[in-house]
Structure formats: structure tokens, C-alpha cells
Specification:
Length: 395
Amino acid sequence: MAIPWIGDRFRSPSDRAGRRRRGRSQPQRPEDSQQEDADVARTRRRRNTAIGIGAVLISLVIGIVAFGYYQEFYRPPRVWAGSVNNVEFSMGDLVSRIRVLQGVNRYQGGQVDLSTVPFEYLQNLINAEILRQASPQLGIGPTDAEIDDQLRSQFGPAEAPGQESDPGQLNREYQNNYQSFLTATGLSDGDYRIITAEQLSLHRLMATMAQTIESPLEQVEVQWIRLPLERDAQGSAVQPDDVFRRLAIEDFGVVAREVSQSAGFARADGYVGWVPRDTFPELDQALYGDPERGLIALAPGETSRPIFTSDGIHIIKMLSGPQIQELDPRFRIKLNIELVRQWQELQVKNGSESGAVRMNFNSKLYGWVADQVFITAPRIPADQAQPGQSGVPLR
């Protein structure tokens, strides 16, 4: 007889297994089946949603990384920096050319100032290309043989007068010297031949411009005090207004000896000499006046207020008004340089107006170029360099 209060724990295992089989074999109620289907569908939707969100996040991360790589490494070198007619320069070209300059300066013991070089060198690239394209018309383009001669004169051994030399030995010494230079600077023969061709063309342009300089010509006699734009190593600087006030009660030459820093054109007492027009364009208004703007030149004995120029701060004393004088050799060279610069500026101006010359440069691209050049810069001891030099970060 079965005892009703005895539970499953006192039944045999075969009885319990049988009950489970019988329970599974019984059909589910409709409402239970619908609930189970809904749960499965809900679970599937949640899984698909999670997978979709994960895929979107992964795609977003990959996209951000790819965009950052494109913006920082792929795109900048290919962004055009400038063009002259059908010749275009990219930012990568600009970096390469600055590295050439960097290599030459490293060989010569100089440094590249990254606070100014990127934009200046882009202008140099544009100027060099303008001159290259204009050289056939000007008749100043160098041939390959002339470039070879220039390289041999630069790197070939010096021959003693009256001494016979073996041409083969001279050629070997030249090749060794030239290869040592290329190795030390990290340049290729092609890179340096381009630079040599540009230098030859520029020198020939200067020679052409020099033929237009007349002598004697009208000049004024001046004396000046030149103060630097930047502060000294201690962070102090002579105040131009203070110097100007001193000149009211002190001798000009005495003050000049104390504070003036000559750029090679003035004596210790500030005497410059006879200066022709256009030799120092930023000072011409004070020296010669500007009738179009109603500006009158300094009178003999008059001293100007401080004049800020790209080369420094000048306080000028007019000694003698315009007279016809022979041209000083120093100012012939300076005037020649200014005539070439004026020719370059005119070509850029005319080319920009016609659309033949274009430049593309901004602070972001400037920063990218400076960073790329800094990577390969020789490291300079901190006590020997100034911020902005190659190897020294900009602040």
C-alpha cells in the first residue's frame, strides 16, 4: 500500500526519471509557447543591437585613427605649398628643401632658424623657380658643364702656381672631397646640383642688375644709431625713446659708441657716409622723403625719431642733403642686392595678379613643417642655442 506523505526522495531513481519523461512528453500550453517565442525574439534583438552598436563603435574608432593618420602623416606632405605656372611645390617638397639647407648649414657649422625659415624658404623656392623659368629669356641659365665647373672650383684641390699636377690625382681628390661633403650633409648629388644651378642663376642675375647701377649718382650723407629688435641674452634691451632723449643733450657720436650695434655699414661713432636712394628702402622716406605721401626728408643737422625696420631700429642724423657723389663699394653691393630683391618682388606681384604664382601657407602648415624639420635637426646644447633654431623647440 502506498503511503501518501512519502515524497520523491523516498522513490526510486527510475520512478523519478519516468515522471520527468512523462512531464516532457506532455504538450505545452499555447500561452507558454507564445511567451517562449517572445523571449527568444527579444534576446535575438538585443544580441543584434549589441553587435550593431559594437560594430559602429569599432568603425568609429578605426575612422578616427585613419582620419588622424591622414591629417597628420598622409595629407600634409601632399598639400600644395606653392606653384609657378605649371610647376607645383608640396609641403613635402618644402620640408625636403629645408632639410637640404639644414644639411649644408650643419656642414658649415651654422643652424637653421625654424622661427623664420619655413615661410622664407617657400618664398625662396618660388623665387628660384621664377628665375629658372625666366633664365632662358635673360640668358643666364647654367649648363651641366658650367655646374660641373662650379663644383670642381668649390671642392677641387688648390693647385700651386707653376707646379705640375697629375689630372687623375686632382680628379680623385675632387671626387673624395665632394663625396665627403655629400655624406656629411646627407645630400644627394642631384640635390646639390639643383642648389648649385640656382646659385649660379642668382649670381648671374645680380651681375645683370649690377650693370644698371650708375656712378656717380645722387646721395645723402648720414650718421645713425642702430638698435637690435630683439632683447639680449639677459632679456634687457636699450629703449629707443631713451636714446632719442639722450641725443638732445649728448653728442651723437658719443651715444652711438655706447649703444649702437653696427650691421657693417657704420663706424663706431655711427658715421655711415653717402647713401644712394633704394639702398635701404625702409629708410628712404626719412632720407629722401615721399612726395606722394607728403613726407619731407630730414634736413641737414636734423635727427629722426626711432624708425623700426626689419633690420633693426634706426635713429638717423642727416649730415648733408642730396649731392652727386661716387658710389661707395659697400653700397654698390647693397644696392645690387636690393635691385635683385625688387625684381623678385615684382615677378611675384605680377605672377600673383595673373594667377601664375600662388602660395598656400598658414600657421597650422607652418607648425607641421617646423615639426618635421625638427625631427631631423642636429641636437644643440641648450646653453648654445636660441628658441627657434634647428634642434630647439619653439615656445
